[in-house]
Fold this protein.
Amino acid sequence: MSGIYIHIPFCKQACHYCDFHFSTSMKKKDEMILALANELKLRKTEFENEIVETIYFGGGTPSILQIADLRFLIETVYDNYSIIENPEITLEANPDDLSEDRIIELSRTKINRLSIGIQSFFEDDLKLLNRAHNAEEAIKCLEIATQYFDNISLDLIYGIPGMTSEIWKKNIEIALSFGIPHISSYALTVEPKTALHKLIQNGAIKNPKDEVAQEHFSILVELLEANDFIHYELSNFGKVNYFSKNNSSYWLGKKYIGIGPSAHSYNRISRSWNVSNNSLYIKAIQENQLPNEVETLSISDRYNEYIMTGLRTIWGVSLDNIETEFGITYLDYLMKQVQKFLNDDLLILKDNILKPTKKGKFLTDGIASDLFMLN
């Protein structure tokens, strides 16, 4: 089983923290839609022996598109790929795009999962992040969306400067009040060249504190697990049968094709990524050229990726898989590197599966990097 990711590189405005590829100009929207459809056609041979189980519209802000655009792209996938009977088809959406009429229209398409970028239910946070929606729209869209969609995920950001633990708890409690079955939650990260980075440098916004983010993370895990959510990936929590199939396929090493400017693809042997420029992307696709770079993955690359993704998930890192896929040299190296984390109660080894402890979860990415094999 495989997945298709479609990157929609348009947004109404730039969030202060975002470093994804997008444009706030919609001038090339129609050309872009045609280019995305053409790339889907150009690359169908890559999946001629694959069955697609997920289609994911990410961005950018996919909900900025017209319903006709989304239908066109979905039908292009169906016309060129083999699809399972009931694929998971996700649309990332912002609250300001989700009017009642738009939600009803979306419910009449093949889209069966919404991933809604709430980020916070509080006005001060939304203004600091420069989100396009307000707190009222955040509440209203969920009141309506839950009437028409069963499978909804929402995003929340913690560690925002000025966000108290009490406010963070209220954010989670408001989300839970809607019966949402999936929550993705991330610490506010200051990426280079973003507006947030400049505002912090200028002293307009305080730098997020790691200790605050860690406290918020602990609150998040405790509250969601108490409400029957399974913490199945470092930043993702789902109820039974509501894990993101799209994201899970990434973490489990399944193949996927990324369509659109800046989109990444993976086939277990190599990774590729498209140019992060709308005009150059459109021009190349119009000439039936794929505007991408390809990197063949070394055995160390594949080992490191397995360590990173495995430790982030409930499935952990299988020592049997390490030996089978990468050989005894890599297993011996891992066992040598891992000892200090086992001794410090940051990792646990049980049934030949390596996983972070409760104490180690927030530190997972740093732990993983210490286990990497350096070329």
Observations:
- The mean pLDDT is 96.
- The longest strand covers residues 83-93.
- The chain is about 40% helix and 20% strand.
- The longest helix spans residues 210-226.
